[in-house]
Amino acid sequence: MPALRLNEFVEPLCLPLLTLLTEAPALPFKTFWLVWSLALDLVSSNVAITLLGAGGGPANETQMVNTANSVLYAVWFAIGWFSGSIVTTLGPKYTLMLGTLGYPVYVGGLWYFTNTAHEWYPIFGGALLGITANLIWTAAGYIAFSYSTEQKRGTFISTQWGLLSVGSTLASFVAFGINYKASALQVPVSVYIVFICFMASAFFVALFGIVSPSSVRRSDGTPLAHYPHNGFWYELKAQKQLLKDWRLLVLFVPMFASEVAAIVFSTLNSLYFNIRTRSLNSLMFNVMQGVGAILISFLLDSKMIGGRRTRGLVAIAVVSAIVVGGWVGLTVWLYKHPLNLLDPPLWDWTDAPFGGFMVLNLMFGTNMVIYQVLVQWIIASLTNDPEQLARFAGMAKGVLAGGIACSFGTEAAELSQLRIVAYNFTIQAVGLLCMTYIGWTCVTATNYRLEKNVIPPAEMETPDKEGEEVELGINQDRT
Length: 479
Prior knowledge:
Elements: H1 3-10, H2 15-23, H3 29-51, H4 62-90, H5 92-99, H6 102-116, H7 120-146, H8 153-179, H9 189-209, H10 232-240, H11 246-250, H12 252-256, H13 260-272, H14 275-301, H15 308-336, H16 353-380, H17 386-412, H18 417-441, H19 465-478
Helix pairs in contact: 1-2, 2-3, 2-9, 3-8, 3-9, 4-5, 4-7, 4-10, 4-17, 5-7, 5-9, 6-7, 6-9, 7-17, 8-14, 8-16, 13-16, 13-17, 13-18, 14-15, 14-16, 15-16, 15-18
């Protein structure tokens, strides 16, 4: 495969791989993917340890983990209002380097609590990770949003999640292999050690692999945009303007509800099943994220479906069917299997209730990806300006974290699982309605040639009649 063509696909997924492909083309292709996997170790390992439930500890540690995660995502929510400005000021390289520091500390805190029962370390680790993880995800969102063309934006965003699914699946395989014959109620020390080592390696990948956005070129040789050197205070003022954008305010609910399915699944997994079954559930949840990424990528970028607005609306309809079906099915399952927190069942995969939960597990793994990719695609469809997309990414990740914090808060408050499901179902359903409205009224055929800092690609998608009418309306509003 020619290097330039490969770069076009890889740029928003893993900049270290991009650098190696352009500067050291003689290296074997497998080495490139090894470097790419190191970049994903950090987040993937954390997802795997989280989906084991109770941070990999026994079921009675679930409340501590939910408390630590509530702190984590509350801090993440607060930092999200500034992280877009941090990315545009420091650049993705240094933002990612800072972002790698919190993950090993957090997982180390879970390991510490398992051995000492002292809560201060995991809660401190959660607060630190709330800062650093937001930087990681804002930089990742910035890359996925701004390095892609309009025609391939859905593919870039969903492929990033697909690659995360691959990394999380590999990490889950590690945990599943270690726990396959385990009779203990918590994962062994080796799982924590392996994950912490993987996470620590990500710092060096960011240090040696990341390139400046101004150095990135599309396959046709054009740069992405003109990058003005604005000061940090200018960026903060620009970030504040987001609160006046009515489109983002309407999208607040779907951003808030993007990832709540994973929290509900993680808690139920820890309360209902033993450790080896939790490992299997976690593994399949991650596998379905990859399946969901492929599905949503096709829906959002396939020209066979129609123009951008049509693709968005069709994707919303498909996502709605999966999301609503999953929440209704989970409600029925919980009615049939009420939970006693004082005596959790800790079922094995050989027990009868496991089959129904596995079906729901597959649906919620898909939900985890398709819902938030759809939200991000709609947000990224509002502009092509990299500076603005960085701010959008920071806000989206921050609001998402606020939703996760509230979901963990409901778990930590020990509400009944049926009430927790009702709450999360409601916010995701309202979010679908909000996305439908913005998709219908604000997603146009193209935003190219409407923003002075954006350099259009040599080949642009020809707007359909519907898109031309909407674009004309935008130009009239601006004059």
